[in-house]
Amino acid sequence: MLVHFWGTRGALPSSLSAEKVKQKIIKALKAAQGKTFENDSALEEFVDRELPFAVRGSYGGNSACVEIRGGDEYILCDAGTGLRNFGQSAANARGEYNIFLSHLHWDHLQGFPFFAPAYIPGNRIKIYGCNPGMEQAFVVQQGPLFFPVPFNAMRAEITFHPLQRDVVYEIAGVKVRGTKQHHPGDSYGYRFERDGQSVVYSTDSEHKKGSESPFYEYLDFIRETDLLIFDAQYTLLDAIGDKENWGHSNNILAVELAVEGMVKRLCLFHHEHTYDDDVFDELLEDTRTYLRILSETSTLEITMAYDGLEIEI
To answer: By residue range, what is the domain housing residue 112?
Structure first.
């Protein structure tokens, strides 16, 4: 299985400002002072090896959309603005697209009106979710007050498929199970399994202190998964402060749950739109430091999601 992140932000998209780009260039030039580069390969090696990710790249600004490859058809989690970029890459491909919705909040739907395959006759798009009112949410989003192209003008065959939580389905050659999560209006995480490999997509979910108890039901859902994509939108300070009960979790609980659930790889996801790349670099380092404090023997790998990241299981 291969997981491609097309959008990783939470709440709303967030782009780099001209000033932020300028600061990245200044930091890169300072780091290169006194160095000489014989060719482009040497320059590229310097960028890749010596510059922090927050300087040489960006964690991206699109809202949630994750592709899981390895099934018989396209599998996507959520339809945030990252869906547009995926759609552009797949615009010339004909086929069946399976989209699993964590919930119906706008940042998880807003890419669909710009999804090129939805306008191509012959394509089949199946939208799955556990929340009631899926079709209505899509139709309203493309109503005349909000968007110039109505939902019924899309020329692909688009169907909606309600799922029951905690029931295993076989879809596109992959076993899929959804579970309810704590979030305003309810959200659902999904576990995907095929050929002994598994990915858990778990965004927009708030876990309270004490959730790491071995009796916490969520642990069974994530247990021994190869990759856990986890909503770590906030720092611990934000999560237990003003933003408590907003329906999102933090990097510290992410580590505790992943270790208790014997997860192999943890990917922090659904990034706070007000944080910049420097904050994410610090957050990743803090998270890895906490893991070393929590468990000296843990083999858990920790990654920070960014637009364009690919993880092979």
So the answer is: 2-15+58-312
Whether residues 22 and 151 share a domain: the answer is no
Same-domain check for residues 137 and 189: yes
Convert the pLDDT of each residue in 222-248 to its tens digit: 999 999 999 999 888 887 777 777 888
- Same domain, yes or no, for 149 and 278? yes
Nearest to 12 by CA among 264, 233, 291, 265: 233
Contact 163, 129 (CB under 8 A): yes
The enclosing domain of 102 has a CATH number of: 3.60.15.10
* Residue 153: how many other CB atoms lie within 10 Å: 10
Same domain, 221 and 87: yes
| pLDDT of amino acid 245 | 75
